Amino acid sequence: MASINIDNVQKAFGKVIAVDHLNLDIKDGEFFTFLGPSGCGKTTTLRMIAGFYYPTKGVVRFGKKDMTRVPPEKRNTGMVFQNYALFPHMTVFENVAFGLRVRKLGSKELNIKVKDVLQKVRLEQYADRQVSQLSGGQQQRVALARALVIEPEILLLDEPLSNLDAKLRDEMRSEILRLQKDYKITTIYVTHDQAEALSMSDRIAVFNFGVCHQVGTPSEIYNEPANDFVAGFIGEINLLPVKIGKVEQEYIYVMVQNGESSSELAVRNAPFNYKEENKGNLALSIRPEAINILDEEREGKNIFKGTIEEVQFFGSLINILVRTGGLQLQVNALNSGLSRNLEAGSEVWVELPDEQMRIIPVVNGDGS
């Protein structure tokens, strides 16, 4: 295994900055995910780790070894590409054995290693079959086996599940995690799928426009977003533009504009980061599942009367759109099986719990 250090790395293609002043530390044996929309710099970063691109500036290290200008074949990394990059004219066995033959491994040892990895990916009975005769999920496993059989220090996965249907993606998530734990290998996974990132990762780096906006555990990324881009990209969110009012030891009071009027909200005074010059460009974030719908008014902070505009039923979850003043709030309620008056046009009271709200800077996704 190997740790990875990305030290102030920049990658430019002509005048286009694909990755800008990136600093990351990835631990031995960690499942680390690069998450972001298309063109955000995540695959470019992966390719700099693999050695397919060299950084314009900065240093890439494996452990304490400088790998910045080391060619790919000397990095001992295994890579699974989005399109698998298998050899269609070869059998499953030959595809998996290819990297070992390049390394001129002896026939006996080669056979042992290939059979062992095919057993681990549950494809031993398909060893003599052409890869063109396999399903998408089976081809994915062949690509994983080919990457793992060379016993790499680092496994790199570039959107490996994007070509599979939803059910097969779920199955392959579990399969990849099982293999990663079996091999105890440092793994970097690139995806634009938030569900994949949240369910599989030890830690996540969220990218946009070549900038890494936040690094953290899935819980930290979801519950404590660093700015409006992270909050909006990871799951559903209510983002309300606010201005800071009075600040007390326990609460920060913010003003939210409701059409022609405004409402005051009390937010639990937890630490939050923003530049002083950005003080007038802030948002309040709260997840839809954190908002409570009340049957009647009760005493307490942050309780407002509203009207249900829309109800969508998803089985275990009910998605409700509530209008309160000039604000539209998305609320997700668990279906408890109890009869409640959750119909369009119904009047309700909504509560925004003070400990569930966060004040975050608005960066418009550009990292400024």
UniProtKB/TrEMBL annotation:
Annotated Gene3D superfamilies? 2.40.50.100, Nucleic acid-binding proteins, P-loop containing nucleotide triphosphate hydrolases
Task: State the Gene Ontology terms under molecular function.
Answer: ABC-type transporter activity; ATP binding; ATP hydrolysis activity
What the entry lists under InterPro entries is as follows: AAA+_ATPase, ABC_SmlMolc_Importer, ABC_transporter-like_ATP-bd, ABC_transporter-like_CS, Mo/tungstate-bd_C_term_dom, NA-bd_OB-fold, P-loop_NTPase, Transp-assoc_OB_typ2
ABC transporter domain mapped to chain residues: 4-234
Q: Write the record's keywords in alphabetical order, separated by commas.
A: ATP-binding, Nucleotide-binding, Transport
GO cellular component labels = ATP-binding cassette (ABC) transporter complex
The record's section on Pfam families has: ABC_tran, TOBE_2
Under the heading PANTHER family, the entry gives: SPERMIDINE/PUTRESCINE IMPORT ATP-BINDING PROTEIN POTA, SPERMIDINE_PUTRESCINE IMPORT ATP-BINDING PROTEIN POTA
**The protein's name in its UniProt record:** Iron(III) transport system ATP-binding protein
